[in-house]
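Minutes, structural biology subgroup

Action item carried over from last meeting: produce the structure token record for Biotin synthase (Halomonas saccharevitans). EB confirmed the sequence was re-checked against the source entry. Recorded below for completeness.
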Amino acid sequence: MPAAPQESRPDSLTLATRSEVRHDWSLEEIEALFALPFNDLLFRAQQVHRAHFEANAVQVSTLLSIKTGACPEDCKYCPQSGHYNTGLGKEKLLEIEKVVEQARAAREAGASRFCMGAAWKSPRERDLEVVLEMVRRVKELGLETCMTLGMVDTDQAGRLAEAGLDYYNHNLDTSPDYYGEIITTRTYADRLETLGNVREAGMKVCSGGILGMGEAPRDRAALLQQLVKLEPHPESVPINMLVKVPGTPLENVEDLDPIEYIRAIAVARLLMPKSHVRLSAGREQMDDSTQALAFLAGANSIFYGDTLLTTGNPQVKKDRALFDRLGLHPERRETCTDEAGQQAALTAALEANAVRQAAAAQESAAGRLAYDAAQA
Ligand code: SAM
Ligand code: DTB
Ligand code: SF4
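Output recorded by EB:
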């Protein structure tokens, strides 16, 4: 067992990280945060988290794949890439009414943001027209909207913003150095350009990456450094844990130690104090304790609903139980025109859901009793 380190006490690093929003973090400074004793790192992250957010509130988004499979890009982690055989067929763009129906169901289950993803390199003109209508219709339901459609130019970003799109998701995925090992069909510079176009159009930026793709610890620090360089910081930072999908080149990559994942969440919280950090893909493979640690480390957003785009996510009832065990609650919407009304609707939706679940549980218990009586 290693010798006990000197007792940690507040130092300049603590003070520097408490609340400052900076864009000039050096790789060495970020690596020093990763290297802190775990308890010190989580303590600092929790301090910063509480300085900027309601401690027990978690923003909840629901995802829908509006166009699945046969993507021309070769992202090695992705089940939707047409370069690999993962058993996913090529699907057409969903009909607008189907998307609206799913968005309504997500709202009724308690989501405040609806995220729509398409397996495209970038949207074609005739598809964009349909997608713009989806944004308008989903917004009419009182939900925040997010889309991830691949690369967008200034004109496309402007039209999405005009239609009322709140967030655009486009991830940097990994460090600039490791990037070439994962994707060859689109460059890091392409990604930064799309993020610039989204920001310029006035939309909020959702950008993060994936951990557990065989990257080195330095790559995790370098990914966060790239995100931190964005001015302003992305409002939403998804930190995905790789979902290893059979058929993708990364299906057998070694698992990342969950403690390293938690460290990355905590460092993201310290570096981007005002951003929502999302405990994103990979929750279905995580135990509850790892998720609890992620919330303690400053994660305050999740995807909610039984599927992500094509892979599984914890069942809604499992997440409700986890929230109850941890005393967490869904975050109030910030950008809502009628915040009080929306919050009441969200609370009512959650309560209605709970009542439905209790009735179902009672019904099944009654069924069991009747069955037992018949057996007796
Ligand atoms: N085609 C668009 C794009 O790449 O910008 C949007 C959809 S893409 C599926 C959105 C993000 O999902 C990717 O950037 C990646 O970070 C994440 N993702 C995809 N497959 C994943 C996996 N197997 N595990 C974890 N995250 C994944
Ligand atoms: C993000 O960072 N993660 C989400 C969302 N943005 C679009 C997607 C996760 C996808 C996981 C693999 C799948 O379900 O296909
Ligand atoms: Fe296509 Fe996006 Fe998957 Fe890459 S991550 S293959 S761009 S759907």
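Discussion: Residues 63, 79, 115, 117, 148, 169, 171, 208, 238, 240, 243, 280-281, 308-311 surround DTB (ligand 2) (CB under 6 Å).
Next step: EB to file the record with the rest of the batch.
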